[in-house]
Design brief:
The protein is of the alpha/beta class. The chain has a single domain, classed as Aldolase class I (TIM Barrel), CATH 3.20.20.70. Helix content is about 45%, strand content about 15%. It contains 13 helices and 10 strands. Strands 2-1-10-9-8-5-4-3 form an 8-stranded parallel β-sheet. A two-stranded antiparallel sheet has the order 6-7. β4, α7 and β5 form a beta-alpha-beta unit. α3 runs parallel beside α5 and α10 runs parallel beside α11. The longest helix has 24 residues. It starts with a helix and ends in a 7-residue tail after the last helix. About 45% of the residues are buried.
Length: about 280
């Protein structure tokens, strides 16, 4: 299997894109005509992919939306994975993290059974909860670090002292992820909703790829994320957008609307990438 980082880099260059589209199926938001089909999950996702495949660097199905639909959801997920373009990486947003033996089972499920190129993991239980994923050297492992949800501060901002260094917990997670990145397959999940935290993580982990949620519906700062997040090659971030693209329209115009929203986001990001490469000042 092609290494995730290589597959991602190729997609970024080919499609001139840092857009990661979240394939999050919510029945109530899918056009009624589509929901009438017995295969509505795969059909809806296939339409989104058909409309956006040349504009994105990654697809990110969130497993929770499929699990909530029971066996039909799992069937729809498998059908969706089967039709995704082979040259666009698939990142399963699973946020798994458990004791070693269970983590091994989760890793096999996501990587061996479902065939994902990458997955999100929760490091709260420590290294042995993440290690089974890291053992897949060709797959991407995105460690939750500073998330975009309002409750993130409840634990992630708690100041802890590790090896004599006092810092918020999310900074210790970022440092741990850098240590774990022995095979170049580790990334971090860092929301765009808190610029100060974003900058702190990027300073700690200057070369690891960042999965950046929070842009769009959550009001994250896209200009900041690009200015502070992209690397010297103008890459290194995956800007995640789900609802703003997938549900850009609730009627029969859903495919065209999804394409227009993806194109607009890609072009906005690329304008910001261009501004940085031309030496525009870093945002305050």
């Amino acid at each position: 299997m092609t290494r995730f980082v290589d597959k991602l880099a190729a997609a970024v260059q080919r499609n001139a894109s840092l857009v990661c589209v979240g394939l999050d199926v919510e029945a109530a938001r899918v056009p009624p005509r589509v929901r009438e089909r017995p295969d509505w999950i795969a059909h809806f996702n296939a339409g989104i992919v058909e409309a956006t495949a040349d504009l994105v660097c990654c697809y990110k199905p969130n497993l929770g939306f499929y699990e909530a639909l029971g066996s039909a959801g799992w069937d729809g997920l498998r059908q969706t994975l089967a039709i995704l373009p082979a040259d666009v990486p698939v990142l399963l947003d699973a946020k798994r993290g458990d004791i070693g033996s269970t983590a091994q089972a989760y890793a096999r499920a996501l990587f061996d059974d479902l065939g994902a190129d990458a997955a999100t993991v929760n490091p709260y239980m420590g290294f042995d909860a993440v290690e089974p994923f890291l053992a897949y050297h060709d797959r991407g492992v995105f460690v939750l670090c500073k998330t975009s949800n309002p409750g993130a501060a409840d634990f992630q901002d708690l100041v802890c002292t590790v090896d004599g260094r006092s810092a918020p917990l999310f900074e210790h997670v970022a440092r741990a992820a850098v240590r774990w990145n022995q095979h170049g397959n580790v990334g971090l999940v860092v929301g765009a909703t808190q610029p100060g935290a974003f900058r702190a993580v990027r300073a700690i982990a200057p070369t690891v790829p960042l999965l950046v949620p929070g842009v769009g519906a959550q009001g994250g700062d896209l200009a900041m994320a690009v200015a502070e997040g992209v690397d010297t090659h103008g890459a290194g971030v995956l800007v995640a957008s789900s609802r703003a693209i997938v549900y850009a329209s609730s009627d029969d115009n859903w495919q065209a609307a999804a394409r227009a929203a993806t194109l607009a986001l890609r072009d906005e990001i690329n304008a910001l990438r261009g501004a940085k490469s031309r030496g525009a000042p870093t945002l305050p």
